[in-house]
Amino acid sequence: MDLDSKTIIAMMSLSSLAAAATLALASRMHLAVRGIGLWAWGFALGGIGVGLYPLRGAVSPLLTVLVASTCIIAGYGLLWAGMRRFAGRRVAPWHLALPPLIAAPVLGTLYLADHAAAGRSAFISALILVLLVLATAELVRGCGGRALGRRLLAGLFGAHAVFYAARLIAILAADSGAVAEPVGAFATITFVEAFVWVVFSALAMVVSTSEVLQEELNRQATRDPLTETYNRRAFYDLAGRELARAARGGRPPAVAMLDLDHFKSLNDRHGHDAGDRVLQAFAATAAACLRPSDVLARYGGEEFVLLLPDTPLADAVAVADRIRRALEAQPFDGAGGPLHATVSIGVATVAAGTTDLEATLKAADRALYRAKAAGRNRVEAAPPPLPDAPPSSAALDATTARPAGTAA
């Protein structure tokens, strides 16, 4: 083995170990991000395995062939498992154990078969190719490729898989096992490609970790921690954007104020845990009735606010009543026995061409108080902000939606 090959292998081994150390530190600093520790162990095992290659001929083949190759395959297996965990999927013990358990006996058998280096190299390439494809699939499926770091990581793993597919084809097509040994031009290309892949993959992993942390910070800044709806600040920001869009020529949105009926007495009778469950269930029930473009936010206490982009008054009343009926039909377990929750809702539309959100919220709030005064568990609508013509009797009927049963 010439000096250049030894240097390249040493660079490959050291880069893997450096990536492992970097990711191990990141794992300790960012415990909330799953999968980083498995990535660190994967690069560490790969670096150890590659570092054993230059010792061939000086120490036992058991160490430089079987142990080295098994370490490398186990490392790729850990990278795959890390991608599963990073994508939010479960990692079972067999995910960690299966790659080395497959590799070790097969490599041992191939070594005993007249030191079949080409066969070993083809098997290693095939197994690494499978693990790379699995890891890439986890990235694409679990992370959705939404952010730069994850797109880069998926691209790097995919490109590495393509290289190993080409390597496998070259080994199978070769007349001799020359391409299978860690020497020569083919081996140099393999280790240089691996070196570049390790460096950029580790960088992409760090960037992906930062993206996950930033997404979590954004979620905490914009979401209510109990109900996972938007918080008040985020609602005002999103509503302001929607009103600005509508003022430029779109159809005005509708706004609804939603208040759970008798919530204080519910808390007193059934306990605060039951009250929290009702709030969470209401948020989930309301969200199930909405479009992806609609914005539901917790306005304070048991009061919520809803923005319905591009929605006329009659449609907004229908959506609000659908939410009301869905909550009314849902039973809950409380400390004092079964309980039912209801909601009163006030609906208003934004005046065409305006960005005055506060006026619309006040109109919806007045409609909400009319719903409360009229017996609760109902939907009331504010008059249209700019009535150009007297409303028809059908429109008047649409502005009030009453429950089929008695008020709570």
TrEMBL record:
Keywords: Membrane, Transmembrane, Transmembrane helix. Pfam families: GGDEF. Residues 376-408 are annotated as: Disordered. CDD domains: GGDEF. Gene3D superfamilies: 3.30.70.270. The chain crosses the membrane at residues 6-26, 38-55, 61-82, 94-113, 119-140, 152-174, 194-213. Residues 391-401 have a biased composition (Low complexity). GO terms for cellular component: plasma membrane. Its EC number is 2.7.7.65. It comes from the Bacteria. InterPro entries: Diguanylate_Cyclase, GGDEF_dom, Nucleotide_cyclase, Rev_trsase/Diguanyl_cyclase. GO terms for molecular function: diguanylate cyclase activity. Residues 251-384 form the GGDEF domain. GO terms for biological process: cell adhesion involved in single-species biofilm formation; negative regulation of bacterial-type flagellum-dependent cell motility. It is an enzyme of class 2 (transferase). It catalyses: 2 GTP = 3',3'-c-di-GMP + 2 diphosphate. NCBIfam families: GGDEF. This is diguanylate cyclase.
